[in-house]
Design brief:
Largest sheet: 6 strands, mixed
Protein name: Methionine ABC transporter ATP-binding protein
Number of domains: 2
Keywords: Amino-acid transport, ATP-binding, Cell membrane, Membrane, Nucleotide-binding, Translocase, Transport
Oligomer: single chain
Function: Part of the ABC transporter FtsEX involved in cellular division. Has ATPase activity.
CATH architecture of the largest domain: 3-Layer(aba) Sandwich
Helix content: 25-40%
Family: Belongs to the ABC transporter superfamily.
Number of strands: 14
Strand order of the largest sheet: 6-7-8-3-9-10
Order of helices and strands: EEEHEEHEHHHEHEHEEHHHEHEEHE
GO molecular function: ATP binding; ATP hydrolysis activity
Structural class: alpha/beta
Length: about 350
């Protein structure tokens, strides 16, 4: 059974204009998130991803559709029963949302107080959590005395205080520098691995998805336009929105602008080879390109690795006799997808 299941979920807001059509922030979303998964939801600003995550913990009521959390349809629950469900869902935010007037220990203890956690056990629980996130020496510090990464670690400790089954991370690394982002993602992986917490990561950064997620849903204009295993989505993106995201971390087949630049510098035939290490080894691509006696120069593209598997698009300039080039392309086409591009003096 999925830990989180959504079926045809819609969320509408009233129009700002009197009599105007409602604004549909989430539009017919269906997805399943399995227990123990790290599931990414990615989209540009306004795609509906933050609204989606607020529906999961019922901070926003859905307009229609079914949302099941650990087997319970939360759209049918009263507010009092939702409070119980929310104790199983932790949440961390981009801006940390810490209480500046309370020290670190008191921030972490806050959900315990709300949940009526036994008072005599609260101090021990706070210490355990601060040890886990590496901030045992910051218990008496205040948020304005902490770095951004430390604040987010406090946020994670606070979100874990009631031992939730689910952790929602809404743009939780967007305000952090690259090294601190890496440290926080390491911690989230540890939370998933050691505590078995199902994590939903909301982000607009493809690097975050690549780094820790096993599955991903791509959103655009309130809809999920593509979803699946991260490697499959990265290596074979189908929707234009997904292709734009993937292109931010690895070049694909050259577009018009890139092709014009390549034409200005290369006179040979341009061909892009799509490489997937489950099917095609890079060294075998090169061997076949050169076997006929043609020359091959790598002029565009690159490789990337996701979930221990590599993929990418490599654009070569091929020069030599026409027959040699045709044979090179025929040889490589037997093991990989090849797209020939218009060169400066060849078609």
């Amino acid at each position: 059974m999925a830990m989180i299941s959504m079926r045809d979920v819609v969320k509408e807001y009233p129009s700002a204009k009197r009599g105007g059509d409602p604004i549909r922030a989430v539009d017919g979303v269906s997805l399943d998130i399995n227990p123990g998964d790290i599931f990414g939801v990615i989209g540009y600003s306004g795609a509906g991803k933050s609204t989606l995550v607020r529906l999961i913990n019922a901070l926003e009521p859905s307009t229609s559709g079914v949302i099941e959390v650990d087997g319970t349809d939360i759209t049918q629950l009263s507010e009092s029963r939702l409070q119980k469900v929310r104790t199983d869902i932790g949440m961390i935010f981009q801006q940390f949302n810490l209480f500046n007037s309370r020290n670190v220990a008191a921030n972490v203890a806050f959900p315990l107080n709300v949940a009526n956690y036994p008072k005599e056990n609260r101090a021990a629980r706070v210490k355990e959590l601060l040890d886990f996130v590496g901030l045992a020496d910051k218990a008496r510090a205040y948020p304005d005395q902490l770095s951004g990464g430390q604040k987010q670690r406090v946020g994670i400790a606070r979100a874990l205080s009631t031992s939730p089954k689910i952790l929602l991370a809404d743009e939780s690394t967007s305000a952090l520098d690259p090294q601190t982002t890496s440290d926080v993602l390491d911690l989230l992986e540890r939370v998933n691995r050691e505590l078995g917490v199902t994590i939903v990561v909301i982000t607009h950064e493809m690097d975050v998805i690549k780094r820790i997620a096993s599955h991903v849903a791509v959103m655009e204009k309130g809809k999920v336009v593509e979803q699946g295993e991260v490697f499959d989505i990265f290596s074979k993106p189908q929707h234009p929105a997904t292709q734009r995201f993937v292109s931010t971390i690895i070049p694909g087949i050259p577009g018009d602008r890139e092709l014009a630049d390549l034409r200005s510098r290369h006179t040979g035939l341009l061909a892009t080879v799509t490489v997937n290490d489950e099917q095609t080894a890079q060294h075998e691509v090169l061997r076949r390109l050169l076997a006929s006696g043609a020359n091959a120069q790598l002029v565009y593209g690159g490789m990337n690795e996701v979930s221990g598997r590599s993929f990418g698009h490599l654009t070569f300039e091929l020069t030599g006799e026409d027959a040699q080039i045709r044979e090179s392309l025929a040889q490589v086409s037997q093991i990989a997808s090849v797209t020939t591009l218009e060169g400066a003096n060849r078609a």
